[in-house]
Amino acid sequence: MLGENYEACKYTDRNLVLRLLTRLMEEELLKEERNIIYLHCGIGVESPMGFSEITSYLRFDSLESTKLYYNKAIQKTRSAIPGSELEALIAGYRPLLQI
User: Fold this and answer.
1) Distance between CA atoms of 96 and 69, rounded to whole angstroms?
2) Are 74 and 24 in contact (CB under 8 A)?
3) 12: DSSP letter
4) What's the DSSP call for residue 44?
5) Angle at 72 between CA 83 and CA 90, to 5 degrees
6) Element housing 24 (H / E)
7) What are the boundaries of each domain within the chain?
8) Residues 6+ positions from 66 with CB-CB distance below 8 Å
9) Average pLDDT of the residues in 74-80
10) Model's pTM, two decimal places?
């Protein structure tokens, strides 16, 4: 059961959230760090890529190094959210409609 958080997600402007997240990542991450997240999440590509595909595509040394680099990029992104415009949007969000 997804509960109350799921209800809020149904009304969230996903495009705005994605724009703010992308802007945050552009400010905080190296191009290579953004690319690995985009590829794995399917942003800007036909479909999400698995780590083995990313390893080949970006010419990483190993699957493990790809996963480590991805996790590092995700952690940097998460660390940048507090105090950001994205956090303000999410924290201040109130559903427009009640079901």
Assistant:
1) 39
2) no
3) S
4) S
5) 30
6) helix 14-28
7) 3-91
8) 36, 51, 54, 55, 58, 60
9) 97
10) 0.78
